[in-house]
Amino acid sequence: MTSTDRHLLQELSRKQQQLQSFRASLSLTLQSNLDQCEWSLLPGAGQGGLPLITLRLPWRVSLGDPFLVALAEQTLQTWGAVDFSLFSGESPEPVRVLNRTLLDHRWPWRKA
């Protein structure tokens, strides 16, 4: 095994641990909802070098979805600002949104 192979295996293992740790930090309801999606975390791949979380949802994307809002809260607490790329079966194009934007939709003054 070459040093490049070892480095790649170490990086893959580190990312796997990071994803497992993040998932374990979620409530059981969020874990269950997340298990219904295909998802990944790509450090530095989001807007402005932010982490990018891609989610392929089996339901329609709604920015007010309680699951997405709760996930946005958790990611903000865990990593700070995160870029989401949300896919559904309705379109091949993702909805791109920052976790802070999802959280902005919670406030009543935004619903004017």
Task: Give a verbal description of the structure.
With 112 residues, the chain is of the alpha+beta class. It has four helices and four strands; from the N terminus they run ααββαββα. The protein has helices at residues 3-24, 28-35, 66-79, 99-104; strands at 38-42, 52-56, 83-88, 91-98. It has a four-stranded mixed β-sheet with strand order 1-2-3-4. The longest helix is centred in the N-terminal third of the chain and has 22 residues, at 3-24. The model has no long low-confidence stretch (mean pLDDT 85).
Number of helices, where a helix is a run of at least 4 consecutive DSSP H or I residues = 4
SS class: alpha+beta
Radius of gyration: 15 Å
Q: What is the makeup of the main sheet?
A: 4 strands, mixed
The total beta strand count reads: 4
Flag low-confidence runs: none
Strand content: 15-25%
Q: Give the fraction of residues assigned to helices.
A: 40-55%
Shape annotation: globular
Strand order of the largest sheet: 1-2-3-4
User: What's the average pLDDT?
Assistant: 85
Distance between the termini: 60 Å
Order of helices and strands: HHEEHEEH
Question: Which structural traits does this protein have?
Answer:
single chain; 112 residues; alpha+beta; four-stranded mixed sheet; 45% helix; globular
